[in-house]
Design brief:
This protein is 53% helix and 15% strand. By secondary structure, the protein is of the alpha+beta class. Strands 2-3-7-6 form a four-stranded antiparallel sheet, with no helix packed on it. The protein has a three-stranded mixed sheet with strand order 1-4-5. A two-stranded antiparallel ribbon has the order 8-9. β8 and β9 (265-266) form a beta hairpin.
């Protein structure tokens, strides 16, 4: 494996960073996080015109046909900028689920719209218990002729209040898990945006009361193994985001340490601050290695990916959280204020740390897969 970026990948990174710096600076992020939808449709349309939602979707379904690593570069930049958009729900969750479990007909029906940015989608898994595993899923899917009747309450659904299509995880009477494509505006679907700590990534509660969908809406290979494969893809994308956010935190800290004067000298010249910034660099470089390894393995080595994905989630989650906390410490009193961006990154770091299960849970997954 080679983690050196190609000139084309560096161009991709530069173009996305430049675009987000121009179109979605922190002032714009703050404006959007106060809105009900949480994102700007015009900004999303511009991101789609750049091909960002199409990045790793195969060309046969209207995508650009790049691999997971290129998508990871984009996610690293959106994580760096805290960009509010449907990218994670639509592409990292829904598109990956379709690529893993969808039939050819289902891929052809959903992926072109996602790739074009015309359709936003997400996956609803966790429920009010907050558990992300199969055992925590109690939503039911009862066959009724050519239809399936869905009942249950889903929570912590990324962009669930705005997504056009929601792939709902539910169990049939035999206890088999399946994923069902549900129109977000269908009869019996009630969506409520949740008040969460991280206002830059909206989440929702979705109630399903006798929601009827076609039996063919069930993804062909829906089961517990599918959920595990989806999580590996999702946490790898999340790790790239976490690396981007941590990198931005360090850059803010170093810049402040150089500019802030105390006792006639920059605070970065004091050992406590200097060492804290150096420790950030060490942690972030290790996190990059973990995330990039998982991104490489996702496309090149299925067995290695099963180890690399939980390792990346566990390490990058703690790395981002710790770096974000240290950023507040470096900034001192101003780092605790609403006006400074440090708290936005700290909240995203904590939210991401808990998404799909906390670091301890993913260390347990890693240990199990290594037969420890």
């Amino acid at each position: 494996m080679n983690f050196a970026f190609t000139p084309e990948q560096e161009m991709l990174r530069d173009s996305v960073r430049s675009f987000l710096g121009d179109k979605a600076p922190s002032t714009r992020v703050r404006d959007l996080m106060e809105t009900e939808t949480g994102y700007d449709p015009e900004l999303w349309a511009e991101m789609a015109s750049m091909g960002l939602p199409a990045m790793h979707i195969p060309e046969a379904y209207g995508g650009a046909g790049f691999n997971s690593f290129e998508l990871g570069i984009v996610l690293e930049e959106t994580g760096r900028a805290l960009t509010p958009s449907p990218l994670f729900g639509s592409v990292v969750l829904a598109a990956n689920l379709l690529l893993i479990a969808g039939s050819e007909e289902q891929k052809a029906a959903h992926l072109p719209g996602i790739a074009a940015g015309d359709t936003t989608a997400t996956v609803a898994i966790a429920e009010q218990s907050g558990e992300w595993d199969v055992a925590g899923i109690t939503a039911t899917a009862v066959p009724d002729g050519d239809e399936v009747v869905l009942n249950g309450v889903k929570s912590f659904v990324v962009d669930g209040h705005t997504a056009h299509t929601v792939f709902v995880a539910a169990k049939d009477p035999g206890g088999m898990l399946g994923f069902y494509a549900v129109d977000g505006h269908a009869s019996g679907v009630v969506r409520r945006r949740l008040e969460t700590m991280d206002m830059t990534r909206k989440q929702a509660e979705i109630s399903l009361s006798d929601v009827r969908v076609a039996a063919t809406s069930r993804l062909a290979a829906g089961d517990g193994a599918t959920l595990s494969r989806l999580y590996d893809r999702a946490v790898t994308g999340l790790a790239f985001e976490q690396v981007g956010g941590a990198q931005m935190c360090m850059e803010m800290s170093v810049a402040y340490a150089k500019d802030r004067m105390q006792f006639g000298r920059p605070i970065g010249s004091f050992q406590a601050i200097k060492h804290k910034c150096a420790d950030m660099l060490v942690v972030i470089e290790s996190a990059k290695s973990a995330a990039y390894h998982a991104g490489w393995a996702a496309d090149n080595d299925a067995e290695e990916f099963r180890v690399a994905a939980p390792l990346a989630k566990a390490y990058c989650s703690d790395a981002y959280f710790n770096v974000a906390g240290d950023t507040i410490q470096v900034h001192g009193g101003i780092g605790f204020t609403w006006e400074h961006d440090a708290h936005l990154y700290f909240k995203r770091a904590k939210s991401s740390q808990l998404m799909f299960g906390d670091s301890a849970e993913w260390r347990a997954v890693l240990a199990e897969r290594l037969s420890i």
